[in-house]
Amino acid sequence: MITVLRLGHRPARDKRVTTHVALTARVFGADAVLVSTRDPALERTVRNVVRRFGGSFRIETGVPWRGLLRDWKGPKVHLTMYGLPIDDVLPRIPRDEPASGSGRTREGSPWRARPAEPAIFIERRH
Question: What is the value of pTM for the model shown?
């Protein structure tokens, strides 16, 4: 299972970017996107696309992200425009466990993959 966690969403400014993140994650095979900021309009937009084009992709906004990250089972990958090249990091991420959008390695150091969006990670993980 792949879940993308979008942190720092600002509904008035980021609606197009976050919609793009969610729909790109969907088309590349993610199971869900969770957004830290409550945004009912974003939920409606994404759910409308899923209803029209099919699939089981889900979106939830206003998630308590700190607890989510603390309690997440499986590897977590921090996707950012800063960090290591995805090709250097991806082989170290276990494929048999769920993956989320942020976190640390088993040794405690962060897995930071360079792409600003989850598409490359999701496509190469599948």
Answer: 0.73
